Amino acid sequence: MRVPIAHNLPKEEVRRRLRERSHEIANFVPGGMADVTTGWPDEDHMTLSVKAMGQGIDGQVIVEEGQVVFEIMLPAMLSFVEPMVANAIRSEGQKMLTDESDRKAT
C-alpha cells in the first residue's frame, strides 16, 4: 500500500520533523497500543516496524521533493483494514509534517 502526502517543505526540514516525531507513528494505530521501531538506512528512507494486536507490519517512508510516501506491507489477513490504515496515515502523517506553531494555532 502506498500513501503519498504532499508537502511544500525542503527535504531537510521533512527529515528533521520525521526524526523528531517518529514516536507519534504509534498514534496511527487505533488505541495507540503499538510498538514502533524506526531506522534511517539513508537520508531519504525511514524504515518502520510496527507491532500491535499480535501483528507485525513493516514499511518505509520515502522523502521526496513535494511529497512523503508511506509504503506499508499489510499482511493479507489485514487487507480489509487498508482503507482505515490509509486514512490514518494521511491524517496523522500530515500532522507530523505540520510545524508545531501551526498545530497550536488550530
Number of strands: 5
Multimerization state:
single chain
Count of spatially separate domains: 1
Q: Please state the overall shape, judged from the principal axes of the Cα atoms.
A: globular
Write the layout of secondary structure elements.
Elements lengths: L1 E5 L4 H11 L12 E9 L2 E8 L2 E10 L2 E7 L8 H16 L2 H6 L1
Antiparallel strand pairs: 1-5, 2-3, 3-4, 4-5
Give a concise summary.
By secondary structure, the protein is of the alpha+beta class. It is 31% helix and 37% strand.
Question: Which key features would you list for this structure?
Answer:
106 residues, alpha+beta, 5-stranded antiparallel β-sheet, 31% helix, globular, TATA-Binding Protein, 3 helices
Could you describe the 3D structure shown?
The chain is an alpha+beta fold and 106 residues long. It has one domain (2-97): 2-Layer Sandwich (TATA-Binding Protein), CATH 3.30.310. It contains 3 helices and 5 strands, in the order βαββββαα. Strands 1-5-4-3-2 form a 5-stranded antiparallel sheet. β4 (55-64) and β5 (67-73) form a beta hairpin. The radius of gyration is 13 Å and the shape is globular. The N and C termini lie far apart (30 Å). The mean pLDDT is 86.
